[in-house]
Amino acid sequence: MSATDGHASQPSTPTVATKHEPAQNGKTEDAKLDGAGDEEEDEDDEEDEEPKLKYAKLTGSLPGVYRNGDSTSAFALAGDKMVLGTHSGSVHVLSLPSLQGLRSWRAHTATITSVSVSPTPPPPTIVRSEKGETSVLTAGGSPAPSIRRQPTQAQSIRQPPQAVPSTPSNLIYIATSSLDGHVCVSSLIDQKDVQLRNFARPVNAVGLSPDYRNDRSYLSGGLAGQLVLTVGGKAGVSEDANTNSGLAGASSGWLGTLTGGLAGGSAGKDTVLHSGEGSIATIKWSGSGKWVVWVNEEGIKIMRSHLRLDSEQAEDAWKRIAHASRPNKKNWAGMAAVWKARCEWVNEKTLEEDVVGAEESREPVDSAAKVNGNGTVKSTASVAKRVKRIEKLVVGWGDTAWLLHIHEGGTSHNGLRQIGSADIVHKLQFRDCIVSGISLYTPSLVAILAYRTRDDDDKPIDTPNDTPSKAGGRQRHRKTGLAPQLRLVNIKDGEEVDVDELSISRFETLSAQDYHLGTFYMPAPLPEKAVKDQGSGALRAVWEASGGGYAERLFTSGASVMSGGSSSAGDDRGARVSVTSPKSSLQGVTATAPARKAIDAHPYMESAGLKLVIQSPYDCVLSIKRGLADHLEWLVEHEKYAEAWRLLDERPEILDTGDRQQNYNSSASQPGTPSQSNHNASLADFFADRSDTQSYTVNGAPGYNAASQQEKRRIGELWLQQITAALQWQEAGRVAGQVLGTSSRWEHWVMTFAQADRFDDVTPFIPSGAQTVLPSLVYELVLGHYIQADRQRLRDLLEVWDPVDLGYDVGSVVTAIEEKLKAGEVEDESVDWKILMEALAKLYLACGRSREALRCYVRTQNADAAMGLIKDGGLVEAIGEDIPGLLMLRVTREQMRSATLSELEEASTEALHLLVEEAHRGTIPPVTVIQQLERKGPPFQPFLFFYLRSLWNGPPEKDQLQASRRGKYDRRVDEGHALVEDHADLAVRLFAAYDRNLLLVFLRASEVYSYERAAALCEQKHYIPELVYILSKTGQTKRALHLIIGELGDVKQAIEFAKANGELWDDLLEYSMDKPRFIKGLLEEVGTSFVEPVDIVRRIPEGLEIEGLREGIQKLVREYEIQYSISEGVARVLRGEVAVGMDTLRAGRRKAVRFEVVLDRHEPGDIDVAAKDVPTTVPEGQEVLPVAKRKVATKSVKPGHCVGCGDGFSEDEREPLLGFACGHVYHLSCLLRANPDTSDEDEIERLLKSCKTISSSFLFTSKRA
Question: Which positions ≥6 away from 962 have C-beta within 8 Å?
Answer without folding.
Answer: none
